[in-house]
Design a protein that fits this description.
- The complex is a heterodimer of chains A (about 110) and B (about 110).
- With about 110 residues, chain A is mostly beta strands.
- Chain A is about 0% helix and about 55% strand.
- In chain A, the strands form 2 sheets. In chain A, strands 2, 4, 5, 6, 9, 10 and 11 form a 7-stranded mixed beta sheet that branches. Chain A has a 4-stranded antiparallel beta sheet with strand order 1-3-8-7, with no helix packed on it.
- Chain A is globular.
- Chain B has about 110 residues and is mostly beta strands.
- Helix content of chain B is about 0%, strand content about 55%.
- In chain B, strands 2, 4, 5, 9, 10 and 11 form a 6-stranded mixed beta sheet that branches. In chain B, strands 1-3-8-7-6 form a 5-stranded antiparallel beta sheet, with no helix packed on it.
- The chains are: A mainly beta (about 110), B mainly beta (about 110).
- Chains A and B meet through strand 5, strand 9 and strand 10 of A and strand 5 of B.
């Protein structure tokens, strides 16, 4: 099946640090990538949608200056959490979708801000 | 408003005890219904896509069915390794996936 690689799997850092998370589609061209946030025992909450070569579309309530998304190629999207604070601690998951492909998800990044 | 509701929230089964998980949906024009499996600390793993009422898909001990209002994920003779959270989702009119809250399945040996 389609593989989406997400890196790093876990990050622990101090408050005020910016953290970059990478999402790669390994065996298909992802025209659209999605970034989700998931709280314990809750379902996935969509943060933003990004299409290759264009600006990301953010969901209501998601700060675009806080969560910077870059989708530079058909196989790579990055999410940068800028000046992270403890309330940004969460499980972040990306997914990728191509033509005739359902969304395939990465294994997530556990972000812990001290 | 597009909505997906899953039940039960949690389900405990003995190994070999078959059961079904429910996913009810309300969406303006069905563009497919997706089932995913999520293990703790992992991203969702794609299982099935169903597009039209009456369609069925099978994979090992899992079978997904679809009607005009809901989908069922039937688990036949489950094993402990089937323990996971099962998520269903439908695309909205803007093609964003709307997820249900999931069913946490625990299969005891």
């Amino acid at each position: 099946g389609a593989v989406v690689s997400q890196h790093p799997s876990r990050v622990i850092c101090k408050s005020g640090t910016s953290v970059k998370i990478e999402c790669r589609s390994l065996d298909f061209q992802a025209t659209t990538m999605f970034w989700y946030r998931q709280f314990p025992k809750q379902s996935l909450m969509l943060m933003a949608t990004s299409n290759e070569g264009s600006k990301a579309t953010y969901e209501q309530g998601v700060e675009k200056d806080k969560f910077l998304i870059n989708h530079a190629s058909l196989t790579l999207s990055t999410l940068t959490v800028t000046s992270a604070h403890p309330e940004d601690s969460s499980f972040y998951i990306c997914s990728a979708a191509g033509s005739n492909q359902p969304q395939h998800f990465g294994d997530g990044t556990r972000l812990s801000i001290l | 408003e597009d909505q997906v509701t899953q039940s039960p929230e949690a389900l405990r089964l003995q190994e070999g005890e078959s059961s079904s998980l429910n996913c009810s949906y309300t969406v303006s024009g069905l563009r497919g219904l997706f089932w995913y499996r999520q293990d703790p600390g992992k991203g969702p793993e794609f299982l099935f896509t169903l597009y039209s009422a009456g369609e069925e898909k099978e994979k090992e001990r899992l079978k997904a069915t679809l009607t005009k209002k809901e989908s069922f994920l039937h688990i036949t003779a489950p094993k402990p390794e089937d323990s996971a959270t099962y998520l269903c989702a439908v695309p909205s009119s803007s093609y964003k996936l709307i997820f249900g809250s999931g069913t946490r399945l625990l299969v005891r040996p």
